[in-house]
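Chapter summary example.
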Amino acid sequence: MLEEKKFRRLILVITLIVIVSVVGIYALYYSKQPDLKADNVKTTDVALDMPILPFDAFSMLKEDLIIKFGEGEEGNGQDYDNQYVDYNQKWFGKMFKARYYYGLYTRIYQINLKVEKNDIQSVYDEMKKQLGTPIQDTLLNKEKSLDERKTYWVKDSVRYSIFYEDSGQCMAKMWLEYYPNPDGHNLGERPTIIQRQDGVEGIIDGEKVSILLVGDKPKYTSRYYKNLYLIIGSKSGSYLGRMPKDGDGGFYPKFTLTNIANSKNKNILIETDNEYTKWYIGFKFKNNQLNVIYSSEKEPSEQ
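The structure predicted for these 303 residues follows.
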């Protein structure tokens, strides 16, 4: 019996020693970790300061919009001019009565913002801040007539435009930017311009070109692009680049200009997100065609 008591006491002592040791090790470990201050936190790209991304809105039906924002002020729905839902929302730093138009099958297809005269400059500045360099920028050019004064951007298949209507009223409007496909490329159904950059040098020697990332969706209400296409527009025509099968399609794709493997000319790097993985596809223009020179889950800089 005495031996059993000694054994139990020994087990208790050993257990206490183990607990104290574990607590001490954890305390030492966490004392060496940096404080979670702003200087130690990695930040990502700042999201657009909008009630909803227009591309997401244009992938919704009116019923989905009401679920998200609640009941708004609706038009009577008798014709296209009256098929809308109004919400008081903040866009580009100002409060607006944002008008969401819906069409066939109640799909949302356009957002209108009426810009007051005293707000034109600040809304224009905020749009440039959020959306970057515009494709056309003549809104504030007083040497042009009002109907020629407009500024617009293309981002995530949406055209953001601020301009003057015939009445002289300044408006900011957003709608899907469909690709007209003037050269008849095989681009699937409902191709839209996801991203566009004009006047790019260093892709084709001695020329400025336009670069377009185009995608097609399997259905209107999908946010997923089934296929992606890269198009270069030049004086001599347009050139089409197709994605490799393992990197095609995805959510919110974008391209950047870079140099891959010390290439002499600029290359075009497309980034796609398939929800579970990201994929990077690099294109090089050579011999009058776009060639895939890189395809990986890692960025070229990580290789």
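To summarize the output: The chain has a mean pLDDT of 86.
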